[in-house]
């Protein structure tokens, strides 16, 4: 019985990974938008751990996607350096702030961010 549970749990985790990678490859997003809700709802992982794991997932996803984008010559090299530097600074600040935000507020802030991002994408 326990072996069946482990197989089902591993399948869920792999499925979340496949969907996340597909979303990242298509849209340049997926780490947070897919991993956080999936880890919280499907895998029953605590909010802070879900957000931290999503950040860690971004590196291998981005490396694979970047490799393909470089091969197809579809990167904006002029913007890359500046955005990367700003992203690293923001990443440090966000990681330090994460532990100071309650799970309830973290959940609300993430939800608001997702709604605003969705509206902006729909409105063009």
Automatic annotation (TrEMBL):
<keyword id="KW-0472">Membrane</keyword>
<keyword id="KW-1133">Transmembrane helix</keyword>
<feature type="transmembrane region" description="Helical">
    <location>
        <begin position="12"/>
        <end position="39"/>
    </location>
</feature>
<keyword id="KW-1003">Cell membrane</keyword>
<dbReference type="InterPro" id="IPR051598">
    <property type="entry name" value="TSUP/Inactive_protease-like"/>
</dbReference>
<feature type="transmembrane region" description="Helical">
    <location>
        <begin position="79"/>
        <end position="99"/>
    </location>
</feature>
<dbReference type="InterPro" id="IPR002781">
    <property type="entry name" value="TM_pro_TauE-like"/>
</dbReference>
<protein>
    <recommendedName>
        <fullName>Probable membrane transporter protein</fullName>
    </recommendedName>
</protein>
<dbReference type="Pfam" id="PF01925">
    <property type="entry name" value="TauE"/>
</dbReference>
<comment type="similarity">
    <text>Belongs to the 4-toluene sulfonate uptake permease (TSUP) (TC 2.A.102) family.</text>
</comment>
<dbReference type="GO" id="GO:0005886">
    <property type="term" value="C:plasma membrane"/>
</dbReference>
<keyword id="KW-0812">Transmembrane</keyword>
<feature type="transmembrane region" description="Helical">
    <location>
        <begin position="51"/>
        <end position="70"/>
    </location>
</feature>
<feature type="transmembrane region" description="Helical">
    <location>
        <begin position="105"/>
        <end position="123"/>
    </location>
</feature>
